[in-house]
């Protein structure tokens, strides 16, 4: 299981293992989430408390996105959240609702490409 970068360092001290999305990225610096800026921030910034008022949620999500904006592994984090898919929290600068939109667009694009690939080709007149 990949450990979310939002966990405090002591909670994520167990080495990452193979997760549902595949093996953790290992390179000279270790798995991607070890470089995540959010590891130094409070996890509550990235995940909603129960019955959070809308204004508070929007403010918290914007603060979390500002953290993501300065993160060197924001793309890896976003792809992790899209591949899992992570149903809650801000991951890779996107909220759960924003990730659902991205996934829907990807599915629609894939369907359009498959449909275009399987459509009969009409020879150009000339």
TrEMBL record:
Name of one Pfam family that matches: Whib
The record's account of how the chain is modified after translation: The Fe-S cluster can be nitrosylated by nitric oxide (NO). Upon Fe-S cluster removal intramolecular disulfide bonds are formed.
Reported cofactor(s): [4Fe-4S] cluster
Cofactor, free-text remark: Binds 1 [4Fe-4S] cluster per subunit. Following nitrosylation of the [4Fe-4S] cluster binds 1 [4Fe-8(NO)] cluster per subunit.
PROSITE patterns: 4FE4S_WBL
InterPro entries for this protein: 4FE4S_WBL, Whib
Region feature Disordered, mapped onto this chain: 1-32
Keywords from the named record: 4Fe-4S, Cytoplasm, Disulfide bond, DNA-binding, Iron, Iron-sulfur, Metal-binding, Transcription, Transcription regulation
Binding site for [4Fe-4S] cluster: 38, 68, 71, 77
Subcellular location(s) of the protein: Cytoplasm
4Fe-4S Wbl-type domain segment(s): 37-101
Function: Acts as a transcriptional regulator. Probably redox-responsive. The apo- but not holo-form probably binds DNA.
Entry's family note: Belongs to the WhiB family.
HAMAP family: WhiB
Name of the protein: Transcriptional regulator WhiB
Organism name: Streptomyces sannanensis
Lineage, uppermost ranks: Bacteria, Bacillati, Actinomycetota, Actinomycetes, Kitasatosporales
